[in-house]
């Protein structure tokens, strides 16, 4: 059994993507900065995961500054020198999959939303708003298809797009890492109360459309009102 395969077995409660990210991340952190870890194919085979799963693990590690990927002769995966912000993201990634951790992550994410809305109001460009509207379109497709889980995942893509407007690197790193943690442990969606799920999701879609419209119009009062409503009438994710 390879070293990476042994690392993959350390915590069976994590998803395969998280296991691969943690295994390769630990390998990179133990190597000198700039050290070559191997080719993507070699490391994927050692982890024993599908190509798509491995690529998603690499995306997570790259976004946190743990590895760099180079193409061409002599290319492959290399250990980066993680910044303090990257190490903070890694600590969130390694949280346990227990329900309490996910609930805590949702609570912290909700508390950060108003800060990100304020930054989006101040720094959002036309291109940023356009990216948000692309995410809204994907959410609408999920509404039309009656796909609540797809809707919630597209919703997180929208919130990630809002977060990336912020110039605050620490805030972005924490928020996006929390989204990754929540998303990786979500298998179903349940509404609040006794309302039909389809009706609830359609209402949530309109709330997000209104939020992006408020950001586009630089309407601070409306945007903050909507994000407060967003965080007090959410569905349960499991």
Order of helices and strands: HHEHHEEHHHHHEHHE
- Radius of gyration, in angstroms, nearest whole number: 19 Å
Characterize the largest beta sheet: strand count, sense, and whether it forms a barrel. Answer: 3 strands, antiparallel
The portion of residues assigned to helices is 55-70%
Count the strands? 5
Note the beta-strand portion.
Answer: 5-15%
Instruction: Give the helix/strand class.
Output: mainly alpha
Count of helical segments? 11
**Uncertain residue ranges:** none
Biggest sheet strand line-up? 1-3-2
Summarize model confidence as the mean pLDDT. Answer: 83
Keywords: DNA-binding, Transcription, Transcription regulation
Protein name: FCD domain-containing protein
Pfam families: FCD (PF07729)
Organism: Rhodococcus artemisiae
Provide structural commentary:
The chain is mostly helical. It has eleven helices and five strands. The chain has helices spanning 3-8, 16-30, 40-47, 51-63, 84-93, 99-123, 126-145, 148-163, 169-184, 197-217, 220-232; strands at 36-38, 67-70, 76-79, 189-190, 236-237. Strands 1-3-2 form a three-stranded antiparallel beta sheet. Strands 4-5 form a two-stranded antiparallel ribbon. It is globular. The two termini are 34 Å apart. The model has no long low-confidence stretch (mean pLDDT 83). This is FCD domain-containing protein.
């Amino acid at each position: 059994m390879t070293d990476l395969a042994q690392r993959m077995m350390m915590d069976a409660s994590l998803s395969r993507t998280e296991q691969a990210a943690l295994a390769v991340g630990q390998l990179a952190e133990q190597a000198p900065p700039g050290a070559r870890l191997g080719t993507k194919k070699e490391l994927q085979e050692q982890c024993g995961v599908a190509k798509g799963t491995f690529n998603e693990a690499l995306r997570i590690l790259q976004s946190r500054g743990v590895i760099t990927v180079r193409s061409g002769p002599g290319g492959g995966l290399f250990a980066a020198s993680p910044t303090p912000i990257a190490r903070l993201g890694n600590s969130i990634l390694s949280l346990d999959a227990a329900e309490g951790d996910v609930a805590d992550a949702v609570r912290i994410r909700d508390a950060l939303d108003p800060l990100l809305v304020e930054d989006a109001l101040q720094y959002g460009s036309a291109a940023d708003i356009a990216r948000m509207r692309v995410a809204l379109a994907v959410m609408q497709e999920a509404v039309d298809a009656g796909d609540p889980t797809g809707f919630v995942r597209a919703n997180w893509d929208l919130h990630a797009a809002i977060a990336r407007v912020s110039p605050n690197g620490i805030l972005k790193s924490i928020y996006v890492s929390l989204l990754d943690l929540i998303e990786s442990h979500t298998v179903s969606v349940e509404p609040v109360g006794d309302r039909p799920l389809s009706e609830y999701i359609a209402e949530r879609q309109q709330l997000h459309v209104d939020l992006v419209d408020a950001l586009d119009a630089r309407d601070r009062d409306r945007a903050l009102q909507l994000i407060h409503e967003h965080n007090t009438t959410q569905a349960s994710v499991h």
